[in-house]
Design a protein that fits this description.
The structure holds two protein chains of two kinds. Chain A is mainly alpha-helical. Chain A is built from 14 helices and no strands. Chain B is built from nine helices and twelve strands. Chain B starts with a strand and ends in an 18-residue tail after the last strand. Classes of the chains: A mainly alpha, B alpha/beta.
């Protein structure tokens, strides 16, 4: 279709909001650092706050932004293949696969550095299983979702078994991992996620375009020269890689993946979720959720996974109600 | 006659059921071809196979003499437009946007929209008379408007030939005529080859240049309606007794079902014996 300004404007506004949120996130806390000092510290001017801003808060804020973006991308791609606004990495088993592998690693006394790689492999393995089960009819939406739900439930049960038979302390650590948190994480995790996104960049550029065709049924898509099955596998595969990469690092904060695409879609008024805006919105949402988790009940920290659901849920409901009201 | 689309010894089936068994036919270029036949005779299967939506078990579909399955799907999409029977309307998509999807075979992800695309979309919307609806959401339109939008999308594809699977189903009579008039204009004014599956024999006779009658996966007759549409053909294809008269408006054959031998109303009680 001809060039539309709206997605560009929305992306610009989201980017500005994201930067503001990051600065606020670096500013709030104990000690409080004035935004001016945050900016001065970031610019390398050398302030007394360098340790707090640059070494303690910045890595976590960047991780939140990068992880949120990855969840936004994963959610957009998975929802488009599943043809379902409620799909997210946990509907197709990626979250549970990563969770099971992480739980096993955490409760078996494996080295801490092995948890994330194990979770990555677990998430990918679950996705391969779902693809194999869903492939018979060209990864058609309904079959894909059913295969995903089935695998997710089975893996969830296995997670419970591992947790119940584990040492209670290990079980608690696994529980926290499953909820998803950014506490104690920073540059390393952010680098892994960002690296995956950068590696996927050429595919993502293609995907942003290919998503247009995904709203058409297969016959219509073939009629205009598309290959819907190959396209679905490409889009779903990319989504799974993004989802597994981010879940392995920060755990199941995947409510972002559910909510960001749908809200972004309504902001740009398109017939499908827009990839870039969903990524920016995901980043914004997770930065805010992590900030709220840190500050709301300080000094007690709530995991970001809890907060994303608490903020995103009501907002999604609000957006749904508003959309319905306008149409009728 | 030059054939734009042909089938050679086509065998098509689903799972364990064979629908078309060795079908060979030629569809003339620059003509409006209508395929008719009773339910489950394989007419939609034939159309969908020609549109490469189904893969034949054996045999080939030829587009201008070349086997369609050997051609890149994007190239086929520039020459052959397809309108499936009940396409899914994406939620919230606007008319202009949906019509624009017809330009897909001319686009790449690194070159997404050209002035040619804009021209083709404007032209397609004008032809299908949906220009006034350009900014409306397709899912808020009536059935007739919606069907014109879908046709506009295939027109934007700028193909020589257009295949339509029951394009008038679910439309009221006025909208059926509207769609058929549009297809007729495409043939006459634009020289497009149009192939459609229709249910209504009289509409087929009125609009078709070339009629293909099918039964049980085989072709029973093919040719201009005035030459082939007779009471015998209708009986052979549909198993229906009828009278064929010239249409008072167009002179095309008009099929009027005969009174059935067994009345539709319940028979009168049989007189009891022995009273």
């Amino acid at each position: 279709m001809p060039f539309r300004w709206r997605p560009v404007v929305v992306a610009g506004v989201l980017l500005v909001l994201l930067l503001v949120a990051v600065v606020v996130s670096l500013s709030l806390g104990t000690p409080y650092v004035a935004p001016v000092d945050v900016l001065r510290s970031l610019s390398g001017a050398g302030t007394p706050y360098d340790l707090v801003v640059r070494d303690l808060r910045l890595p976590r804020a960047v991780l939140a932004a990068v992880a949120g973006a990855a969840f936004g991308v994963a959610g957009t791609l998975i929802q488009s293949v599943a043809r379902n606004p409620l799909a997210s990495p946990d509907v197709i088993g990626v979250t549970q696969g990563a969770g099971l592998a992480a739980t096993v690693a955490l409760t078996s006394g494996a080295a801490a550095v092995l948890v994330a790689p194990a979770a990555l492999l677990g998430g990918l393995a679950a996705a391969v299983l779902v693809f194999a089960l869903g492939a018979r009819h060209g990864l058609a939406a309904q079959r894909f979702v059913l295969a995903g739900v089935a695998v997710a439930f089975a893996l969830r049960a296995l997670i419970e078994v591992v947790m119940l038979t584990a040492d209670p302390i290990d079980g608690l650590r696994a529980q926290l991992w499953l909820i998803g948190t950014l506490a104690g994480k920073g540059w390393t995790e952010a680098a892994w996620i960002a690296g995956t996104l950068v590696a996927l960049l050429p595919v993502l550029l293609w995907a942003g375009w290919a998503l247009r065709g995904s709203v058409l049924d297969d016959d219509t898509a073939r009629g205009i020269g598309l290959r819907p099955v190959a396209r679905r596998i490409g889009l779903a595969g990319t989504g799974v890689l993004a989802a597994a990469a981010v879940t392995a690092q920060v755990g199941a904060v995947d409510f972002v993946a559910l909510v960001a695409p749908q809200v972004a879609r309504r902001l740009v008024r398109a017939e499908r979720p827009p990839l870039l805006c969903a990524a920016l919105l995901g980043a914004l949402l997770l930065v805010l959720a992590d900030l709220a988790g840190r500050r709301l009940f300080a000094p007690t920290q709530l995991p970001a996974g809890v907060l994303t659901a608490a903020i995103g849920g009501p907002y999604l409901i609000f957006v749904l109600l508003r959309t319905r009201g306008r149409r009728s | 006659m030059t054939a734009l689309l042909s089938t050679r010894d086509l065998v098509v089936g689903y799972e364990d059921r064979t629908v078309l068994d060795g079908l060979t036919l030629d569809l003339p270029a620059d003509a409006f071809t209508v395929i008719v036949g009773p339910n489950a005779c394989g007419k939609s299967t034939l159309l969908r196979t020609m549109a490469r939506l189904l893969t034949p078990r054996r045999g080939a579909v030829l587009l201008d003499g070349a086997a369609i399955r050997d051609l890149p799907t994007r190239d086929v999409a520039r020459r052959l437009g397809v309108l499936p029977q009940s396409p899914l309307v994406p939620e919230g998509i606007t008319v202009a946007d949906l019509v624009g999807r017809g330009r897909q075979p001319y686009q790449r992800w690194w070159r997404q929209w050209s002035t040619d695309d804009g021209r083709a979309v404007d032209e397609a919307m004008r032809l299908a008379d949906v220009t006034g609806l350009a900014d409306r959401a397709v899912d808020t339109l009536s059935g007739g408007q919606r069907q014109r939008v879908w046709i506009a999308m295939t027109l934007a594809q700028d193909t020589d030939a257009l295949l339509l699977d029951e394009p008038t189903t679910f439309l009221d009579l006025a909208h059926q005529v509207e769609v058929l008039d549009l297809l007729h204009r495409l043939r006459v004014e634009r020289g497009r080859t149009v192939v459609a599956v229709l249910h209504d024999l009289n509409q087929a006779a009125r609009y078709a240049d070339h009629l293909v009658a099918m039964r049980d996966g085989a072709m029973v007759a093919a040719g201009p309606p005035r030459d082939i549409l007779t009471a015998d053909l209708v009986r052979a294809v549909f198993g229906l007794d009828c009278v064929v008269v010239p249409c008072p408006v167009t002179g095309a054959p008009l099929v009027v079902p005969a009174l059935s031998q067994t009345p539709a109303t319940p028979a009168a009680p049989v007189p009891r014996k022995g009273t």
